[in-house]
Amino acid sequence: MAEPPAAVRRLRRSVAERYTAAVVAARWWVLVAVALLTAGATLFLPSLTAVGGGLAGLLGGSSAAVQAQVDAVERFGLPLLSPTAVVQRDPGGLDPYLLADSLLAAAEVVQDTAVQGGGPDDDLLLAYPVLNTPLLFPGAAEQGTTIVTYLFIDPAVGIAGQGAITREYAEGLEVPEGGLVGSTGTFLAQAAQNEIIAESLPLVELATLAAIALIVGLNFGSVLAPVVTLITAGVGYLVTDRMIGLFGELTDLAVPSQLQPLVVALLLGITTDYTIFFLSGVTAEYEQGRSGRAAVCRGMAVYLPIVLVAGITVAAGVSALLVAESPLFRAFGPGLAITVLVGLAVSVTMVPALLAILGGAAFWPSRPGSGTRPGRAQAALSRPVVPGRYLRLIGRRWVAASATGVLVALLVAAALPLADLRSGVAPVAALPAENPVRVAAEAAAAGFAPGILGPTEVILSAPGITAERAELEALGTALGRTPGVAAVLGPGDQPLQRELGLFLAPGGDAARILLVFDSDPLGATAINHLAELRDRMPALLAAAGLAGAEVAYAGDTAVGLPLVETASGDLGRVAVAVLLVDLLLLVVFLRAVVAPLYLLATSVLAVGAALGLTTWIFQVPLDQDGLIFYVPFAAGVLLISLGSDYNIFSVGYVWEEARRRPLREALAVAVPRSTRAITAAGLTLAASFGFIALIPIATFRQLALALALGVLIDAFVVRPLLVPALISLFGRFSGWPGRRLAGPAAGTPDGEPERPVRAPTPVAAAPPAAGRPARRADPPAPRRERPRAPGRDIPPALRCTIPPALRWAIAAAGLLVAVQVIRRQPRS
Length: 828
Description:
Elements: H1 6-25, H2 27-44, H3 48-51, H4 55-58, H5 64-76, E1 84-89, H6 96-116, E2 124-131, E3 146-153, H7 159-171, E4 180-184, H8 186-220, H9 224-250, H10 260-287, H11 292-319, H12 327-358, H13 376-382, H14 388-393, H15 397-415, E5 423-424, H16 436-447, E6 456-461, H17 469-480, E7 485-489, E8 510-517, H18 524-544, E9 550-554, H19 556-590, H20 594-619, E10 627-628, H21 631-658, H22 663-690, H23 698-730, H24 804-824
C-alpha cells in the first residue's frame, strides 16, 4: 500500500479548496437554497411522529408467541391473555358489596358475549375477574384485598382505543375506601411512554441547545460561534425529521417514533462536532495570519476531507444494523444513518457559508491571531487535555508500553460487570414511579404477584387431551413447583359458571394453563425463568403422563424471550459488520493496516468500559432488574462508530504532521491541537446524549448514561492518552504497509521534491565616471500594493459562481413553496 504521490495529494486538497471556495463565493445563494429546501421538506414531507410506528409493532409482531396466541383464540374461541386490565385494591380488605358489584359488571359482559354475541360496546368481548382468595389464587401475597379484571378487547382496536375502553370500564366500578381503581397493561404502558416522550422532548431540546451554546461559546470565546452551531443544528433537525418520515413512508422499515429523542441527541451532537472541527480549522488559519474569506476557505479545506470520511464512517457503521434479524434493530439502522448523513451535509454546506458572511465577527469578542489572552473560562476549557510532559515521556518505548498496560487494565476492569448483564423488556417498570399505569401495576403485584398482569399461557395440543383432567392437574401442580412460578391457573380453577372455552378447547384437542411468575413478566428474571422452564418441559410432560403433547407458549414473557435471544445472536453479526466497515474505511483513509487494528481495539475497550459501568450502576446501586435488551446493542453500535469518527480526526492529524517531521515531534504537535477540538466536541456530544435522561423513562436513562460515559471515556482517556501511547509504542510500524510515517523526505516539509533555487544574477554596476567616486546601488523601492476589494483575497483559481441553471432552479423552488404556503392559508 504505497503512499499516494504528491500530485494526488495536491489534487485532493484542490478539490476540497474548490468546493469550499464555491460555497464561500455563493454564500447567500447557498443559504437561500438551504432555506427553501428546509421549508419544502417541512411543508410537503411527513414527519417521523406521523409515519413512525411504535415499538409494540416491532417487539414481536411475527414471533412464535404471537402466532401461538392467535391460533389459541381460533381453537378455544376466546382469548385468555389480555394486554389491558383494571385493578381494584384495598389494603384493608375489599368490601363484600364492592366485590359483588365488580363480579356483576364482569358477568354482564360475559352474558352479553355468550348470548348476544357482543358486549355493550361490541369491542369489549370479555371481562375476566380474578380475586386473590385461597380458592382462586392460593399463592397470592395477600388475601381478599385485590381484584384484577382482564379485559379482552377486539384486536382490531388500536392502542388508543383499547386504553379508552379500559378507562371507561374502570370509571364504572366503585373505588374502595382507602384504595384505588386503576387501569394498566402493556398497551397502556406503551401509550404512557409516548405521552411522556412528547411532553419531555421540548425540555430535552432546550437543555441540549443551552449546553451546546455554553460549551461552544466558552471554547472559542465567542457569542456568535454558538449561533452558527445552533442554526446548523436546527436546520439539520428539521430536515432529518422529514427525511426519516419519508423513508418510513417509502419502505417497509417502520422507524419507531420512540427513536425521536435519540435522533435529536445524535443530530445535535454530530452537527456540533463537525461545526467545532471547522471552527477550529478557521481559528488556526487566523492564528497563522490569514483573515477573511481566505481563512474560511483554507480552514474548511483542511478539515473537509477528514469530516467527510468521519461522517461516512459513522453512517456506514450504524447502517450495519441492517444485517440483524430483529426488526427493531433493522429499523434503528436507517434512521440513525439518515441522521448522520443529513447532519454531515448540512454542516459542510451551511458552516462555510455562515462563516464567510460573518467573517472575523463569528469569533467576537475574541480575535484569533491577535495575541489577546483568553478569559479564565475559555482558557480552562481550551487547555490541552494531554500535558506536554506526558507526550515527551511516552516517546520512550518502555514508558509507552507501561502507559498502555495501565490504561488497558483500567478499561478492562470497568468492563467486567458486563459478565453479569441481565436483559429484559419491562415497559411498565420503565415508567416513572408516580405514573398511574405503573401505580396500578404495583397494586396488582402487591395483592397477587408481580407477574399477574402478564401471565404466560402454556398451550398443550394432543388428540383428546381435554379428557385427561388428572394428567393436566398433575402437570399444573408440577409447574407450580417450578422456580420463579408464583401461581398456576388451569382447568381446575374455574370462577365462571360455564367453561366458555377458557382452559379447554371445544374440539377436545387442546388445553391451556396460565403461569404467573413472581417477578416482572417482561423483566430479565422472568425471561430467564421461562427459558429454564422451556428446557425442563419435556421431562415435566413425561412425568405427568402427557409425553406426546405438543407445547406452545404465549404471553408477554414468551414474546420477550425470543427478543432477548435474537438480540444475543444479532450482537455477533452486527458487531462483525460494524467492525469490518469501520476497519475498511480506516484502512482506506490512513492507508495502513496496523494502526486501524489497534484503533478499533481501543474503541471496543471504551465501549466495553461504558457498558460495564452502566450495567453495574443500574443493577447494583439502583437494584434494577437488568437493562432494556436493546440499550447495550444500540449504545455499542453508536459508540464504536463515533469512536472511529474521533479516530479519523485525531490520528489523521498525526498522519499529516508526520509528513513534515519525525513521528515523536508529530505527536507533540498534533495531539494537543486535535484533543482540544475533540474535548469540546466530546463534551457537547456527551451533553446531547446525557440530557436524554430528562425523559423519566428507564430506557432513555440507561441509554443516556451508556452513551455519555462512552463519549467521555473516548474523549478524555482513549484519544488523548491511550492512542498516543500506542502510536509511540508501535512507531513507524503503525503505518504499515504504507510509508506515511517514514518521516519527511529530503526536500520540502511535505516530502515533495524541492525545486533548485538559483541565486539571483548580480547586475553589473556601470563604471564610475572619471573623477567621481563609485556610487553604491540603492535597493529598489518597495512595491506599493493597491488595496483589494472585499472578497478578492480568494485566489482566482478558487473563485466560483452559481451557474445560471442553478439560480433558476432555486427561484422555481421558492416560487413553488410560496404558492403552497398561499394555498394552505385559511380563507376568510
